Here is the input.
Amino acid sequence: MYYTLDFVEWDAQTISLYQQTCKANREWRSEELGVMKDEWWEERWKAIEIIVGKGKTDKMKQAALETLWLDKMKQGAALDVLTLSSNKISDKGCEALAPALAQMTALERFDLGNYEIGDKGCEALAPALAQMTALKELDLGLNQIGAKGWAFFHLGNNEIGAKGCEALAPALAQMTALKKLILAYNQIGVKGCEALAPALAQMTALEWLHLDSNKIGAKGCEALAPALAQMTALETLQLNYNKIGVKGCEALAPVLPQMTALETLYLRDNKIGVKGCEALAPVLPQMTALESLNLSSNQIGDKGCEALAPVLPQMTALKMLALSSNQIGDKGCEVLAPVLAQMTALEWLDLDLNQIGNNGCEALAPALAQMTALERLHLNQNQIGNKGKEMMREAWKNAGKDSGLWTCGLYLY
Here is the structure.
């Protein structure tokens, strides 16, 4: 190791690391590397977050990481939280960091999102990740890892491919303590789901799985479904923007009730349509822990509302329901209104960007008085005239939801 640690200043806000050796001075002139303490952790100095500024060299980043780790080890403390996102760390930076990362066996949260990591960087990091058996949160979103690694770059976004998932899966299978996994905005596809599924089935502690925008499709859902059935601790499942369609809903439906801890299910923009609603509807009441359901941008229309309406009152834990951008018109509101009045736990209802007019408002307005927990109602960018808006404002006020200064919580733009 070419540098020595001469001075470390600790304080409750910032830990500043200075390298004072001759070589370090020549290379980066005692640059200050900001290291922010995570104030939410109770144990003093235990959890810290490294933020290495843009433009720093790979050697500087290696120095910052190794210096911090060495200092923590000297104090008999293990690093728990490491955030290195948006730092242009490159493949060579990964090669430099890997030896230090491999020793961080107590690491619980590791953020590698939005890097510029390629195939070689993944190959360097993979053995270190496999040793992080205490890891609870891992963010690998928005990288440019190719087929030999975990993703490849495409038009400014990053796409984790099938071969990349094959490289990632063995390390994930060993992360039995992992609670949060983010692989969003990549391109894992069907083959990637098939590669990841066996590893996911072993991650029984996982609480949050984020797979938005990955071109999963119906076949990907079929591949993931058996693994999801084993994930009884999962609290949040995000599958937005994956074009799963009706067949994807049919594949997911049987396993959703087995995910007994699931509180949040996001299926936005998946082209599920009316048939998808019909596939999901029978199992929704069995998801007794579900608090948030997002079915926005799915072209469900009024007929989709008819499919969902009978089961909504049975979802007694539901606090957030998002049905925006779904071509729902006045008839859909007429179907929903009576059941919404029975949803006394609902706090947030999103009906933005639909085709609701004055008649729809006339149907919805009386239900507000019975929706005692409702705090936010979104009706922006519909076809509501002045009469409908005034009707909703008056009903909101009569339900005791008006702050007195403005109609707080009611959105009618």
In short: The mean pLDDT is 76. The radius of gyration is 25 Å.
